[in-house]
Amino acid sequence: MTARGTGADDGSDEALALLRDIEPAPASGHGGPDRGGPDPGGPDRGSPDLEGPDRGGPDREGPRRGGPDHGGPHRGATAAGTRPGAPRAGRAAAHHRTTAWPDARAVAARAGRAAPVRSHRVPLEQALGEILVEPLIALTDLPSFDTSAMDGWVVAGPGPWTVKEGGILAGHAAPGSLADGEAVRIATGARVPAGATAVIRSEHARSDEARTQLQADRVVLHGQDIRPRGQECRSGDALLPARALVTPAVLGLAAAAGYDDLATVPRPRVEILVLGDELLTQGLPRDGLIRDALGPMLGFWLRALGADVIATRRLKDDAGALLAAVTGSSADLVITTGGTAAGPVDHVHPVLHKAGAELLVDGVAVRPGHPMLLAQIGTGKHLVGLPGNPLAAVSGLFTLAEPLLRELACRTRPLTYTAPLRHEVQGHPHDTRLVPVVHRGDLVVALHYNGPAMLRGIAAADGLAVVPPGGARAGQETEILDLPWAQAGTGEGCFT
Fold first, then answer.
1. Are 478 and 444 in contact (CB under 8 A)?
2. N or C: which end of the chain has fewer CB within 10 A?
3. pLDDT, tens digit, for every residue of 85-108?
4. Half-sphere exposure of 202 (CA within 13 A, CB side)
5. 276: left (phi > 0), else alpha (psi -120 to 50), else beta?
6. Pairing relation of β-strands 477-482 and 417-420?
7. Quick one: which of 90, 111, 28 has its CA closest to 332?
8. Is 396 helix (H, G, I), strand (E, B) or coil?
9. Total Cβ atoms within 10 A of residue 73
10. Cα 303 from Cα 470, distance rounded (Å)
11. At residue 231, what are phi and psi to the nearest 5 degrees?
12. Which tens digit of pLDDT belongs to each residue from 387-427?
């Protein structure tokens, strides 16, 4: 286990730099109706220091591919505005079985791998963050000619040397060849003339008063401070394999190697549909209306996961409008918020049925966020239905959207790691829990305000701890899912 934080552990259980006012949250920490169904079945009510490992280990997308549904029946969760025991979208609730959390992630990853791989060729500046479709082959020698590695003097043969007039600058042709016993000024990156044997750094050489003779202050080795042609690579060398991530350094290497554009896997196109009559886009909550917290958040979160968000649209609770939006979208992935349960305005299931979609995941044994779903709505086209409560929606992003997007973009699975808990963590009797945590030295500390409707905890978090059914004890190693921006740090240094 590698420590992820640098802050000292001062022994104060609640003195977290990002949440100085941590205290037990109210008994009911939901803060509003979950339009995908509330989460009354687990301890998501602001309970303190909740975190724990997934006893099954890290993201297990390999061992049980296509395996059975191990999540067990959906236990005790009642959708907002829904009678207990009411049918869910054409099937009896008694027959509904949620999918275990690791299995749901595996299903989402398989769905992404099964989609056709797309490719395009784009200018270098548009390829950042995408995956190479083909190996990066050098189109030229690097460097393409013998180059001075330093400002100084280029010399031929043993010294002392007669100084030639002028000098050689980068971007200019070398002025002929050097004969033994000659020296000329040269700049870093300039082409070394034929006949040269070494470059002497300016601080390692001295000339006479007339500046016609040059002597070295130390031994001059043949070839010193000269970058020979082809030192880094030869034309035709494979610089990077296919499936390499295009980073800023890759862009620089590609440009140096002669490329103007690259063949890459494009970012998956995502359209976000924020559903609900009760949502405001500005101002304070009023008259039973609440602010839309997901619209401002999801687009940036999905971009951090490698998606190209083509639109964020807000729709009223209208089944016809939702059907038109889902079937008319050109996106690879449609994200909906809310409406995944069986309430009077929860239209996602009926719309998917009318659209002829195939439900791949319909409910996940995870808290918060159990009413999430994944459907295939066409060849290579999917829909992830997120619950309407904000933290439950974040759970859906990690559970279904991230594995799907990763595979659509041909990215490799991020490395997983564990960290020990500072405190015991309560767990749900049957379901996995995802709990916001911060790193404190070698330990992780769970944050309060972790109810399904709350963002206060996740806003201060470094990641989510994966808590197995039944909870976890203090000191137990816990799988951690990093937030995409976890390494960005805070502005604390600006205020000291």
1. yes
2. C
3. 333 344 334 335 799 999 999 999
4. 7
5. left
6. antiparallel
7. 111
8. helix
9. 14
10. 34
11. -60, -40
12. 999 999 999 999 999 999 999 999 988 888 999 999 999 99
